[in-house]
Amino acid sequence: MTDSLTTLISKVQNTLGDASGTYFTTAIVTAAIRWALSEWNMRAPINAAVTITGVNDQYEYELSDQDASAVEIFDVLRQGDNNDELDISLDFDAYIEDERVFFRLRAPVTTSETLIVRYTIQHTISGLDSATESTIPAAYNNAMIYGGCFFSIYIRAVARIETINLSQDQSDNYREMAGGFAASFAALIAKAARTKKTPVSEPDTRAWNDAYHSWGQ
């Protein structure tokens, strides 16, 4: 697991040469880490799955009943009967109502069938916005440090530009320092995103010119 918020704040401040938090305060760094986490979750969220027993003649199912942290559904499959049968992707439409995640099958299943719903949830950092667990893999610990540094510099630069007349050299220094951290952060996000491949079962035979292609996708 990645570091807690308290540890990340300390590491970001030390990396920026401000261990006392004089310039890059706890409030600034906390906002920066929140921003970095948001960017991370847009590119490399957690892939999760849950099984739901089918209901005769029922089209609509609520995923939020199974996992309240669900954000977006990316696949619904019918589970194979045994190890010799493949799971098969079903046609469905995902939607959100009252901030809860649902999906509607285009053809119902029966109570003897099991649905596998694949979806995403957000990473969290312990201590940030009431989260109690840090879920980003330890291998990407530095990502939140680089992202925290980049956004801390960005936030501080924004705050200062209106209050004093920054010289061009000072502006260039901010830009140069931020650019290095931004590049490192972006590289780690890209690497993490490449690992978020959808599990493969029965090849999806739906074509681009199907009557209902892209509905709800």
Task: Give a verbal description of the structure.
With 217 residues, the protein is an alpha+beta fold. The chain folds into 2 domains: 5-44 and 123-194, no CATH class; 46-121. The chain has 4 helices and 7 strands, in the order ααβββββββαα. It has helices at residues 5-15, 26-43, 141-161, 168-194; strands at 46-53, 60-62, 72-78, 88-89, 92-97, 100-105, 114-121. The strands form 2 sheets. A 4-stranded antiparallel sheet has the order 1-7-3-4, with no helix packed on it. A 3-stranded antiparallel sheet has the order 2-6-5, with no helix packed on it. A hairpin with a 2-residue loop joins strand 5 and strand 6. Helix 2 (26-43) crosses helix 3 and helix 3 packs antiparallel against helix 4. It is elongated, with a radius of gyration of 22 Å. It starts with a helix and ends in a 23-residue tail after the last helix. 25% of the residues are buried.
In short:
The chain is α+β, with helices and mostly antiparallel strands. The chain contains four helices and seven strands. Helix 1 packs across helix 2, helix 1 crosses helix 3 and helix 3 runs antiparallel to helix 4.
**Unreliable parts:** none
How helical, in percent, are the residues? 25-40%
What count of helical segments does DSSP give? 4
Largest sheet: 4 strands, antiparallel
Tell me the quaternary state: single chain
Number of folding domains?
2
N- and C-termini, Cα separation: 31 Å
Shape: elongated
Instruction: Give the strand order, joined by hyphens, for the main sheet.
Output: 1-7-3-4
Strand segment count: 7
Strand content: 15-25%
Structural class: alpha+beta
Average residue pLDDT: 86
Radius of gyration: 22 Å
N to C succession of SSEs: HHEEEEEEEHH
